[in-house]
Design goal:
This protein is an alpha/beta fold. The chain has a single domain (2-225), classed as Acetylglutamate kinase-like (Carbamate kinase). The protein contains eight helices and eleven strands. The chain has helices at 6-10, 19-34, 59-83, 105-113, 131-141, 175-181, 188-197, 211-216; strands spanning 2-4, 40-43, 88-92, 101-102, 117-121, 147-151, 156-157, 169-170, 172-173, 201-205, 223-225. It is globular, with a radius of gyration of 16 Å. The structure holds guanosine-5'-triphosphate (GTP). The site of guanosine-5'-triphosphate has 9 residues, from strand 4.
Length: 226
């Protein structure tokens, strides 16, 4: 299960969708598919909308707006994957049948078996739950062997490496360490789901080309949480 942040699609402008970047990510995903790896993807929405942007808005409404934004990103990723010949299916946790399939677990697994990349849109369909949690939930449901958690930073640090030059990166962590120390990896509901279901998480940076393949090959290119 590949978890991409919305920002990953934004490129350097920090907002919206950079199709060059989407294509680069798609090529990396294609390498996995060509290796015979079954790939599911969950994508965030931060390049379009963040719940907390809502300010005084009702949290539930703000979160639904975020879920819709993940659908926009999912369609963009589907488009760039199909441009390079990768078969994909988008499945949404919120039904919008004119646009994509509804999420049906057994059908998603069948698509994966057939070598199609399944992009899970609209998070888990629930407000108050992040796309990290959706990635953990779908990963558990489809019996994913690992979550590849692609971020802007190249792993989990003891403090924010953008703010502190002396921040130290962890090569490996346990779920418990992340939860107890409040480390900035996945949020805690996602981490708890991975812990309960023994799903390893590989946190790495997407900025380095070839990293998705390296992560799959077991190279320690970031932080492994298990
Ligand atoms: P197989 O049964 O394995 O061949 O899978 P399939 O996805 O190709 O079969 P299906 O006939 O279900 O779908 C054909 C096309 O219609 C695919 O591109 C699906 O993504 C799309 N599709 C299927 N169900 C829906 C839906 O509810 N809404 C939308 N918008 N598209 C759908």
């Amino acid at each position: 299960m590949l978890k991409l942040s919305g920002e990953a699609l934004a490129g350097t402008n920090g907002y919206g969708i950079d199709f060059e970047v989407a294509l680069r990510i798609s090529r990396e995903i294609k390498e996995l598919v060509d290796m015979g790896v079954e790939v599911g993807a969950v994508i965030g929405a931060g390049n379009i909308w963040r719940g907390r942007q809502g300010g005084g808005m009702d949290r539930t409404t703000a979160d639904y707006m975020g879920m819709l934004a993940t659908c926009i990103n999912a369609l963009a990723l589907q488009n760039s994957l199909e441009d390079i010949g990768v078969e994909t299916r988008v499945q949404s946790a919120i039904e919008m049948r004119e646009i994509c399939e509804p999420y049906i677990r057994r059908r998603a697994m069948r698509h994966l078996e057939k070598g199609r990349v399944v992009i899970f849109a609209a998070g888990s369909g629930n407000p108050y739950f992040s796309t990290d949690t959706a990635a953990a939930l779908r990963a558990a449901e489809i019996e994913a062997e690992a979550i590849l958690f692609a971020k802007k930073v190249d792993g989990v640090y003891d403090k924010d490496p953008n703010l502190y030059a002396d921040a130290v990166k962890y090569n490996t962590l346990t779920y418990q360490q992340v939860l107890e120390q409040g480390l900035k990896a996945m949020d805690s509901p996602a981490m708890a789901l991975c812990k309960d279901n023994n799903i390893p998480i590989i946190v790495f940076s997407l900025d380095e080309p070839g990293n998705i393949k390296r992560a799959i090959a077991g190279e320690n290119i970031g932080t492994i949480i298990s």
